[in-house]
């Protein structure tokens, strides 16, 4: 764990910049797990619904887009945190 | 050791002023508003009794898309009065998103926080105003204390409803549009810089053919950004329609 030893050796602004660079990607990576699973599940279920009843495809597609927008917002808030930390 | 120098983020997001207080982002926003207005004004001057062709056909296509694809799906027939507002929002956001892939412009105007924040504050004011107009002061009571919930649960439900309806909605509208466009822009810049750096590798000529790979990725991402520009405008508009419809006629 030389990285931790090197991190402990920095002080002040450099330590902040170093730990920011290390944790910024971590922030977005963790934030992308949940919405990835959620959107995959949602689209899978809506494909199944459209296959079971093709007449309802229009309404299912609209609701699918709505659901994707809501879950993707969470991943994007993580991305904004990544941008904010990384500066 | 091969390293790619990625410029500081201000260099791809901040543009110098053309004249004081007006930079490229403002130019794109003004151009988007003007193009949208002029297209629909020209279409409105054509004869409405004959079959539409040309500009009028195009404008009617957009109106029908908003009416059938957004309003009828979410607000029903009595929401059709909202067509001008929703169509202006959709056309403006779409025309501000598209310059992200137009050569020589290459910057979506919605990738800076000002436009998404203003649009979502506008939508916030509109849907709260609609709630008050349609339900009077009962709007606050219906949204913060939804009927049909046992009274003991109000301690839990009311703060959640307050935060989710009045605070999270404008915030998430803003962040969704802004971060999607910003992420697309940064990805395009990254792959463009990477393929340029690989094509110009003097120290190691074996790397030059490898530069084709980020070039393919850049082409794929540009096509993907066409979809994302349309989709983000569509999602903003349909969420606006859902919020306005929910404020006008709360479903119990």
What is the topological layout?
The complex is a heterodimer of chains A (87) and B (252).
Chain A lengths: L1 H8 L2 H20 L1 H20 L4 H29 L2
Helix pairs in contact in A: 2-4, 3-4
Chain B lengths: L8 H5 L10 H21 L10 H20 L8 H15 L16 H22 L2 H7 L9 H46 L12 H37 L4
Features of this protein?
A: 87 residues; mainly alpha; 4 helices; 0% strand; rod-shaped; B: mainly alpha; globular
Task: Report what the structure shows.
The complex is a heterodimer of chains A (87) and B (252). Chain A has 87 residues and is mostly helical. Chain A has a single domain (21-85), classed as Up-down Bundle (F1FO ATP Synthase). Chain A has helices spanning 2-9, 12-31, 33-52, 57-85. The longest helix of chain A has 29 residues, at 57-85. Chain B is mainly alpha-helical and 252 residues long. Helices cover 69% and strands 0% of the residues of chain B. Chain B has helices at 9-13, 24-44, 55-74, 83-97, 114-135, 138-144, 154-199, 212-248. Chain B starts with 8 loop residues before the first helix and ends with a helix. Chains A and B meet through helix 4 of A and helix 3, helix 7 and helix 8 of B.
Mean pLDDT of chain B: 89
Structural class of chain B: mainly alpha
Total DSSP helices of chain A: 4
Proportion in β-strands of chain A: under 5%
In whole angstroms, how far apart are the ends of chain A? 26 Å
Low-confidence region ranges of chain B: none
Using only CA atoms, what is the Rg of chain B?
23 Å
Strand content of chain B: under 5%
Helix/strand order of chain A: HHHH
Q: Provide the gyration radius of chain A in Å.
A: 20 Å
Helix content of chain B: 55-70%
- Helix/strand order of chain B, N-terminal first: HHHHHHHH
Biggest beta sheet attributes of chain A = none
| DSSP, total strands of chain B | 0
What is the number of strand segments of chain A?
Answer: 0
List the chains of the largest interface with their residue counts.
A-B, 17 and 18 residues
Tertiary shape of chain B: globular
Name the assembly state.
heterodimer
Structural class of chain A: mainly alpha
